[in-house]
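Form 7-S
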Amino acid sequence: MLAMPTDAPPTGDGWAWEMKWDGVRALASVEDAQLRLVNRRGLDITRRYPELHALGDALRGTDTVLDAELVIFDGPRPDFQLMQRRMHVDAPRDIARLSEALPAVLVLFDLLWLDGHSTIALPYSERRRFLLGLGLTGSAWQTPPHEVGDGSATRAVVEQFALEGLMAKRLDSVYEPGRRARTWLKWKLQLRQELVVGGWMPGLAGRAGQLGSLLVGYYDGPTLTYAGRVGTGFSQAELTRLGAQLEPLRRASSPFTAGAVPKGAVFAEPRLVVEVRFTEWTSGGSIRQPAYLGARDDKDPATVVRET
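Output:
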């Protein structure tokens, strides 16, 4: 289930409030004390996070499916750029090293299956009650509390630690797999957006021979609309990695069917999703002063739309 973006928090009774965690969404299932993690694209990512495997023992004797977010904390704040260093690693030696150096935490926020029974038709309030009843608090997983009311306490924490935003969920909402529903709302206090890469500009001066900036856009129906170029926020290693990913996707024509793409662009099949931070949307529909935060291989490009 996905949340609808909103530019103002909902008012009135019947809402619960949670943090918007800055990480990678995952479904965690446990059967016969064995943990399995699957990302939003249906890929099994269990082996990338060995520090979480003990959750299977914590749920021994139960048959459970949980909705969660994988995060890496920098002090009290989740850090998506640190999460980037875990998301794309496949070599066993590197996985083992990073699980020690940058351990992930599985933040649990919903319960979809328990002991042979689906819970998705239950209201949010009941699913949360069952989830909290599992007592899942450990060094590598936690079940944060939720706030029922106007969300003021949750917002205060978000503002204090400069977190990404808040989630508002109807107490009576059922869980609708794969659907973006208005019973779940996300309210971002920072301007951030997932965007599809449709090409790049070659680097100049210090970046000659490599990527200079990414050309990004979003879908409006079947139309891929150009939203601007992202040229800051990259490490040298990330530029090299992105270049290796994009080169096989090179194509002759532009995938953008709306918006003014700069001359000299190199085009690519729109298969890579990135997340950027920016200051505002311009009147012409572009992002202003964007900075790269990371690639999102857990997101389907076709689902990337402009968030209000």
